[in-house]
Every structure is written in C-alpha cells, then in structure tokens.
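Handoff note, outgoing to incoming analyst
You'll be picking up this chain. Sequence as last confirmed:
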Amino acid sequence: MPAPSGTPPQDGTQADQSQSSPPQQPQQPQQSWYVAEHPPCQVSSQVTDSVAMTNVATIGVGPSYAALQSMLGQSQSQSVLMANMVSAQRQNAMVGMTTMTKGIEQIMNRRNQ
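Most recent structure output, in case you need it:
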C-alpha cells in the first residue's frame, strides 16, 4: 500500500512520483504589528503611572460597588416592609372599628327589645 502523498514510505522504498506533492514554497515569517524600520516609542512615566492608577482605581471600587448594591437592596426591602406594616395597621384599624360598631349596634338593639 503506498504511503499518503507528502510523507515518505515507512518500509524504505521509494514513493510513487505520481502521488507526490509539488515542492513547497519556503514559508515567510508572519508579520506582526511592529514594523522593524521604526524604533520603539518612548512612553512617559506619567502616562504609565496614570494608566496604573486608573487600573488600581477600577479594581479598588469593586468592593464598594458591591457594598452599595447590598445596601440598596436592604433599603428597598425595608421600604416594602414598612409599607406592608402600614397597610396591615390600616386593615387592623378597620377591623377594630367595624367590630366596635357592630358591638355597639347589638347593645343598642337589646335595650329596644
């Protein structure tokens, strides 16, 4: 069985020339974004310091934002709790007023009989 094209046979025999691939072109090195004709730029230390401070500030505010979100969630849940308490108090006052009215009505009806 002949070897696949482009690979030498493993048994030491010559590969069939009709199945061999054409000679490959030499590969050129990949070009990067850096062009060799231009020397590297000098960056001011003020620029690097400001970038570093921005990165540190961005990383440093993460915990404070998390704490802020936690506090806002707690504040909103307390607001809902207070609104529910006011509503329950109002309902209890209405039940009490209705009970008192019905009690007085029954007392007044007994005297008339």
